[in-house]
Amino acid sequence: MKRVLAIILGGGAGTRLYPLTKLRAKPAVPLAGKYRLIDIPVSNCINSEIVKIYVLTQFNSASLNRHLTRAYNFAGFQEGFVEVLAAQQTKDSPEWFQGTADAVRQYLWLLGEWDVDEYLILSGDHLYRMDYAQFVRRHRETNADITLSVVPVDDKKAPELGLMKIDAQGRVVNFSEKPKGDALRQMQVDTTLLGLSPEKAKLNPYIASMGIYVFKKEVLHNLLEKYESATDFGKEIIPDSAKDYNLQAYLFDDYWEDIGTIEAFYEANLALTKQPHPDFSFYNEDAPIYTRGRYLPPTKMLNATVTESMIGEGCIVKDCRIHHSVLGIRSRIESGCTIEDTLLMGNDFYESSPERESLESNGKCPAGIGPNTTIRRAIIDKNARIGKNVMIVNKENVQEANREELGFYIRNGIVVVIKNVTIADGTVI
């Protein structure tokens, strides 16, 4: 795997995850109480012994850069690195990144300097665990120009995804973006050709792109030069190259979730609390998910009732009830609170007792969740200050709302409190 260079596409402005992306790049969004989205593909690379990794992004990349610098230091690896390549305007490229392919094209001069055989193109907003070494080996065994990682899907999921057809040799011969009706039925394939059992193949007669690709080095350079106006891999470059190049499909038959929307992100986080066996687990010694080590103290729980929840390090939880929730690092919850079906992202800092007392005496909210507050079906972003006797329960069952001036949004009925905001005492949402 020393001959592979990984390129993680950090995405655009992250509008589907807004307001979580208001102050940070999409790959820097916190995940599962202590990680960030970028930790998933980077950890998969490291576990696959791929240690030359670039992350392409163009929006709010400061916190992402800081996280990667502190978390991934390959002092013992030869040529190992994880680096952010932010969008830049030059005389040759006066525009910002226009899409996935354009992002790679603008840095092709730098990527081409590496003596590698393949480029591994990854997405920064998926939750899954994958051995990329098997993926690359399949690419080499079939002498493919491009190999696409695909997941088997059923009739329910297929109309919402980009589908493809393969021939008897596993070569990709046709693409269709979110087909319906007869067009959908024409995209059915025999997924036993890719290694699925007959029973599973019957239930999942379609294959959908995961947005993960392996390119031969020279093929990627040729395609980006040939289709110089194309901006997207999945919608333009790869479908257009099917007739002239050997495109192969690699079946990934395991948990994979696109968490690029607020609802999907929320559901994927809370699914981690499921017992006894969540669909995705961070408890895997053979393929761990890495992140920045913070050396925080253990979490302290004082007369708290906690059920079906995950709690990060360094939290202080007092005389409250927490159910089916994920609490991020340094979360602080005062007495009398009820937290249900909620993702708390925690805090970037601690406030000492004198600091908290001073804030309260001046009528201000300390960081964390104030006394006698109830929160249900919500995402509370980092460093939020929630006052006492607050109700965040979406009382009117609103599905969509923009209340940025008040410090929150509602997406698919989920209340999202913006990073660093204060919700005053007695507020009802």
C-alpha geometry: globular
CA distance, first residue to last residue: 51 Å
Radius of gyration: 23 Å
Low-confidence stretches: none
Structural class: alpha/beta
Into which percent range does the helicity of residues fall? Answer: 10-25%
Strands, total number? 29
Strand content: 25-35%
What kind of sheet is the major sheet? 10 strands, mixed
The helix tally amounts to: 11
What are the defining features of this structure?
9-stranded mixed β-sheet, 11 helices, alpha/beta, 429 residues
Task: Describe the structure in brief.
This protein is of the alpha/beta class and 429 residues long.
What does this structure look like?
- With 429 residues, the protein is α/β, with parallel strands linked by helices.
- It contains eleven helices and 29 strands.
- It has helices at residues 39-47, 62-71, 100-106, 108-111, 132-141, 181-185, 198-203, 217-226, 233-241, 262-271, 353-361, and strands at 4-9, 30-31, 35-36, 52-57, 81-86, 118-123, 126-128, 146-153, 162-166, 172-177, 206-216, 247-251, 256-258, 300-302, 305-307, 310-311, 316-318, 321-323, 326-327, 332-333, 338-344, 368-369, 374-380, 385-386, 391-392, 400-403, 408-411, 414-417, 422-423.
- The strands form six sheets. Strands 15, 16, 18, 19, 21, 23, 25, 26, 27 and 28 form a ten-stranded mixed sheet that branches. Strands 1, 4, 5, 6, 8, 9, 10, 11 and 12 form a nine-stranded mixed sheet that branches.
- Strand 27 (408-411) and strand 28 form a beta hairpin.
- This is Glucose-1-phosphate adenylyltransferase.
- Belongs to the bacterial/plant glucose-1-phosphate adenylyltransferase family.
- The record marks 58, 96 as: Could play a key role in the communication between the regulatory and the substrate sites.
